[in-house]
Write a structure and sequence with these properties.
The complex is a heterodimer of chains A (about 110) and B (about 110). Chain A is mostly beta strands and about 110 residues long. Helices cover about 0% and strands about 55% of the residues of chain A. In chain A, strands 2, 4, 5, 6, 9, 10 and 11 form a seven-stranded mixed beta sheet that branches. In chain A, strands 1-3-8-7 form a four-stranded antiparallel beta sheet, with no helix packed on it. With about 110 residues, chain B is mainly beta. Helix content of chain B is about 0%, strand content about 50%. Chain B starts with a strand and ends with a strand. The chains are: A mainly beta (about 110), B mainly beta (about 110).
Chain lengths: ~110, ~110
């Protein structure tokens, strides 16, 4: 079973502050993703990466940066957190040749 | 990109009954994926059905795809309490298996 671990699991941040969400996968997957889920809605793609040291913009990248320093780690960075970024954030990974995407348990971010 | 949309926001059934969740989409697809998300967890893939397939099974789960009506369904037979979750359809697009999710259907099996 693929393992995707997110930290922290929950966080309260102050408006205007910097937030870093971390993701670690132990399955040697090439592709990693960050999704955002708002209450009562589906997930939306923020950033993704298909190789270490490279990131790509997803559907809603504004206000977010991503970093993939190694194959195993993928971070999501909010330089200036805003109230509208309160949501649950999910990291996911996928092997290059496979179809199944594996999600972490999510990080609940509350910006106050 | 167009979202895949589930047709009902919430369903409630008694344990042992069967239930069907529907999904419609607005653009051409190469495949459709069904996910289940339990409370406090990330989504877990249940079934992937490709555009050239009409039906796919996985245990008590059965997915259908009708490309002419641009719709898909996920049926669960002999439901159990642990089937209580939110069910999403998702459309892969572009390279790297990026996903567009519907809003989800919340299924309650047990009180």
């Amino acid at each position: 079973e693929a393992a995707v671990t997110q930290s922290p699991r929950s966080k309260v941040a102050v408006t205007g502050g910097k937030v870093t969400l971390s993701c670690h996968q132990t399955n040697n997957h090439d592709y990693m993703y960050w999704y955002r889920q708002d209450t009562g809605h589906g997930l939306r793609l923020i950033h993704y990466s298909y190789v270490a040291d490279s990131t790509e913009k997803g559907d809603i990248p504004d206000g977010y940066k991503a970093s993939r320093p190694s194959q195993e780690n993928f971070s999501l960075i909010l330089e200036l957190a805003s109230l509208s970024q309160t949501a649950v954030y999910f990291c996911a990974s996928k092997d290059r040749g496979a179809t199944e995407v594996f999600f972490g348990k999510g990080t609940r971010l509350t910006v106050v | 990109s167009q979202l895949a949309e589930e047709n009902l926001w919430a369903l409630s059934v008694h344990e042992g009954e069967s239930v069907t969740v529907n999904c419609s989409y607005k653009t051409s697809i190469t495949a459709l994926q069904w996910y289940r998300q339990k409370s406090g967890e990330g989504p877990a893939q249940l079934i992937l059905i490709r555009s050239n397939e009409r039906e796919k099974r996985n245990g008590r789960l059965r997915a259908t795809l009708d490309t002419s009506s641009q719709s898909s369904s996920l049926s669960i037979t002999a439901t159990r309490c642990e089937d209580t979750a939110v069910y999403f359809c998702a459309r892969p697009f572009g390279s790297f298996n990026k996903l567009t999710f519907g809003a989800g259907t919340r299924l309650a099996v047990c009180p």
